[in-house]
Give the backbone structure.
Amino acid sequence: MRFIRFFRDRRPLAAGIIGLVLGPAVVMAYLGKGRLAVAYLLLSNLAVFFAVFALPQLTLMAAAAVAAACFHLLGCIHGYLLARRGTVDWQYRWFSRWYNIFLFFWLLPIVVALLIRSFVAQPFTIPSGSMMPTLTPGDYAFVTKFNYGYGRYSFPYRANWIPLKMFGAKPERGDVVIFAYPPAPEVDYVKRVIGLPGDHIQMKDGILFINGQAVPRDAEGTITSTYSMEPGVLPVFGEVLDNGVRYRTLDLSTNSRADNTGEYIVPEGHYFVMGDNRDNSNDSRFDVGFVPEANIYGKFWLLFHRDGTKTGWSLVR
């Protein structure tokens, strides 16, 4: 009973503990400060968002944890001071009851975040160099989830009872997409859509052929890579697809096994995908194979570069 009374009476130490453990929004609601609670809820989420980009040397989770820790410490101090001064009026605030605090300032934000991640946009950190120079390891990206409809792989928990695909548009040639890796659907891959159902795809001497026609390709100079697996100055080549999509590729070897392939005929309901780093990409030429349409669940939209040679926002093309 003493433990319950300790928190029920809104004592300064209790407020400090709640602010430190549960954050400033919760402790403000606990003390009856509704406007401050809402303000802290919005500010803390914005701080996490901006910390991700202000601390490029940290991982996505580490940067978010730093921002959250700072706000929890602020919540501890602010909550303690308010309770000590006696400037609280929680007795008459409906949202100060513990179940409303739990519902509106803890559970509801989590539900909203999950809904946004599942149906609108999902943050993503580029893990490898297979899509260089378009996507560089360590870059942050936002993947839109509504372009191709929704299905089993759109959601964080890919339960078997969810239909593989319910509705939505089809991917277009040149789209940079995220999909569930067919041999192991719990793993996500990022590639560019090259072949549509019925297309004939082949590589000849490093040149991409689609339906017997060579994709126009020209040299675009070099880039300086800071990626540990492929450091140094790398040659860049531009390609233009038949629908006008233009993008850049890397060709690190003039005679790799990826430069000359047999002809692939894309089956119905599947797509042929390739990495822009043509000599270092596990894609439809190799283990990935043809990707079922249902496995493709997002399109890369917005990118924040943080590779050490450039920073800033850009659209993914």
In short: The chain is about 30% helix and 25% strand. The longest strand covers residues 296-306.
